[in-house]
Hints:
Blueprint: H1 2-7, E1 17-18, E2 41-42, E3 47-54, H2 55-70, E4 95-99, E5 109-116
Amino acid sequence: MQLNLDFATITSPLTGIVGRTDLSVGDYVAAGSTGAPVTTVSTVDPIKLVFSVSEKDYLEAADRITAILAKPLDQPEATGELIRADGKVHPYKGRFLAADREVDAKTGTIRISAIFPNPGNILRPVSTRGYG
């Protein structure tokens, strides 16, 4: 009986927040099934943000961004400020991770990524898929 229960446990290799699932306790999931995922786990502390800036704004800040990105990851320079959707300033400073390699020809923007501490998991990821 214990062997059967060991095979019935689902664990995640990540620590994070579990998303919605359409399965219930007791549902049968076949080994190797290729259907919809059981759930999604998102790491949210720290949380990675990806945003776009205009090419003009990027060029104005390019020297500062290049200097920040040239520093080793173990010497983080947390200078980024995040204004949340509620208008409040996130209490923790973030660090730039990368600037994309190209400008989007359709929008004239370049994608930037940054990482912010997120104790308490206040910030959440944005869904890239809708639920029906």
